[in-house]
Amino acid sequence: MALTSKRAAQWVAAWACFHQVDAILLPGMAPEEYQEGFPVELKVNKLTSAKTQLPYKYYVLPYCEPKDGIKDAKENLGELMVGDMIENSAYEIEMLRTKECEVLCRNKLEPEHKEKFRSMIEDEYLVNWMVDNLPALTRYSRQGENVPYTYANGFPVGVEKNDKFYIHNHMRLLLEYSKSPDDYERFRVVGFEVEPHSLNQAVRSDPSSTSGLKGVCSEGVATPLFDLDANNEITFTYDVAWIESDKRWASRWDIYLKMTGGQIHWFSILNSLMIMLFLSGMIAMILLRTLYRDITKYNELATSEEAAEETGWKLVHGDVFRKPRFTKLLVVSVGSGVQILGMSVVTLVFALLGFLSPAARGALLQSMVLLFTFMGIFAGYVSSRFYKIFNAEDWKTTTLMLAFLYPGIMFLVFFILNLFIWGQKSSGAVPFSTMFALLVLWFGISVPLVFLGSYFGFRRDPISLPVRTNQIPRQIPAQPWYMKPTVMCAVGGILPFGAVFTELFFIMSSLWQHQFYHLFGFLALVLCILIVTCAEISITLTYFQLASEDYNWWWRSFLSSGTSGLYMMFYSWFYFYSRLAIDKFVSTILYFGYMFLISMVFCLLTGSIGALASFAFVRVIYGSIKID
Fold first, then answer.
1. Can you tell me the distance from the alpha carbon of 52 to that of 428, in angstroms, rounded to the nearest whole number?
2. Distance between CA atoms of 617 and 290, rounded to whole angstroms?
């Protein structure tokens, strides 16, 4: 048994690693090659903070600006939505050319500049640079650990010690390069590391330098740190060092992807998989044995006296497909969940094929928005087929609700949160031109596709039902406390949430602590577990409800697995207070606003799976018995 578990662990880890490597090897991006002495551009990105979640442009601080002006790089929809602001810089780097204490510029520090620096240092803002599409890494030593050091994305604006603020104004740029004369003639950049320093440099005139100045940089007791309050001028200098590496270009992202503790991740996922498979097997075994006994008993020839004494789910055959309350809202919720499920599946397929690697910035979010838009046709089709079960004819109102209800809630919340970000003058505010593009996608593509899907769905014949619905509804007997809707839905949401609990931690760390997420193989595995778990828990609770002669199962089948979204919202509170250091009002609003949207999406996804699975189950069991 131990050997089997060990082999299973090895297989799952190898499978996930295969997909992890694929995600880097197949991004559809060609390596850039440089000749010796050719310029290598350093680009700057936004300033980020896990403490405030409000990004800002790099040049909001008095950093050195390029001589030919600041130029924005072209960005895709995903980059614009997350607030990426990639711009050029004044740093001059040439392939294999080393530099020491090169003066970039000398700027005056006005009172407003000092206040901005203090605020950024207090909020733990990080500077993000890029060279050849590689983000800058900073190395930190680790004491008492097997690994002597670790890496973090970006580097701090400065540090605060003893109520004094020190600016990082000298950067040592360590660039790794590879060469392979047998494969290519030039050189490739395979690593980019930054060592930030705070120095009070000595500067002298040097006409041969591009800045007209020459710096003298030395660290130690004799050279004090750059104290923000004690200086009215700041000099920015940098070193450039080139280090030959045997690292392959295709493997240069490996160091970024190993920053999230992969070993813990793999075996936690394996543990969740084993628990879910065990519970699923147990539920399926009990349910199948009980169902087989019920169907055999109901199909035996019974006398009129025995038929009169019958109990259980057969008695409600005349009411089991009765139209539920708020039918339109139910079918709209199911259709929206199918839309989200389709988007998730196709996105994961592209991610497993390697097209959504971290090197392709913004590609993941952009693909999700576009796929959600195009999946509107499946949402319209499923909701119309579902709605036609109840012989309803008001399909236009239902389709309008499907096209505008949940997308409208998402857009409204997103727009309000964007106003908060805009009020903080953050670069994370989505431009109104991008907002308009989202509206065009919604009204110009998604809405017509939803109506097209509904049109095809209503043109088809209704789904055949195995039993007829009685004119007069049957009275439902009093139910015990554990069969109450609140209790059953609360119990039902635990298993689907448990299936994604471990993966959710890493996803939220990626979202709120600016870490890279790349294990799409495990995420696909978790999605499969989630689908099976939602289907089985909804089917099981639906069976128990019908066995107690309660035929109001429609909404309960949706909510029994859909309440997992509520558990996700509860978990977001726990994560907020245990893992994050957010203390600003706007940042708190942003966190809970976006977590509300994520929880709502998860509720629709899991609820629709449960409702569709329960409907298929009820059709099968009532089609397998004889009804007089």
1. 12
2. 14
Can you tell me the distance from the alpha carbon of 517 to that of 509, in angstroms, rounded to the nearest whole number?
Answer: 9
**Rounded Cα distance, 154 and 193, in Å:** 9
- The percentage of residues in the chain with a pLDDT greater than 70, rounded to a whole number, is 87
What CA–CA distance (Å, rounded) separates 325 from 348?
35
pLDDT at 219: 63
Q: Give the burial class of 477: count Cβ atoms within 10 A of its Cβ; 0-12 exposed, 13-18 middle, 19 or more buried.
A: exposed
pLDDT higher at 392 or 356: 356
Tens digits of residue pLDDT in 287-339: 777 777 777 776 664 544 455 445 577 788 888 899 998 999 999 999 999 99
Amino acid type, 341: L
Tell me the two tokens of residue 590. 């942003």
Among 414, 425, 362, smallest CA distance to 56 is for: 425
- For the chain, how many helices (H) and strands (E)? 18, 16
Secondary structure, 3-state, 327-363? HHHHHHHHHHHHHHHHHHHHHHHHHHCCCCCCCCCCH
Q: What tens digit of pLDDT does each residue of 504-563 get? A: 888 898 889 887 777 788 888 889 889 988 998 899 899 889 888 889 999 999 999 999
Centre a 10 Å sphere on the Cβ of residue 162 and count the other Cβ atoms it contains.
4
**CB-based contact 164:230 (threshold 8 Å):** no
Name the CA dihedral angle for 510, 347, 72, 191, rounded to a multiple of 10 degrees: 60
3-state class of 67 per DSSP? coil
Output 62 or 262, whichever has higher pLDDT: 62
- One DSSP character per residue, 360-375 reads STTHHHHHHHHHHHHT
**pLDDT tens digits for 107-126?**
999 999 999 999 999 999 99
Predicted local confidence at residue 147, as pLDDT: 63
Instruction: Kindly provide the b/e burial profile for residues 357-367, where b requires at least 16 CB atoms within 10 angstroms of the residue's own CB.
Output: bbbbbbbbbbb
List residues bridging with 178 in a β-sheet. 188
CA 335 – CA 322 distance, rounded (Å):
20
298 SS3 class: helix
For the ranges 143-157, 431-445, 612-626, the one whose mean pLDDT is highest:
431-445
* HSE, side-chain direction, 13 A CA sphere, residue 548: 17
Please list the helix, strand and coil fractions of the chain in percent, rounded to the nearest 5, in that order: 50, 15, 35
Reported as a pLDDT band with limits 50, 70 and 90, residue 628 is low
Q: Which of 600, 356, 618, 569 is nearest to 467 (CA)?
A: 618
Show the tokens assigned to 339. Answer: 């839309």
Which residue is it, tokens 């196709």? 346
Q: Answer with the residue of higher pLDDT: 338 or 496.
A: 338
As a whole number of angstroms, the distance between CA 152 and CA 141 comes to 11
Q: Which amino acid is at 451?
A: F
Unique residue bearing structure tokens 């639906």: 542
> E-strand spans in 115-201?
126-127, 129-131, 134-135, 137-141, 149-153, 155-156, 158-161, 164-167, 170-179, 187-197
Q: For tokens 């002006």, what's the residue? A: 69
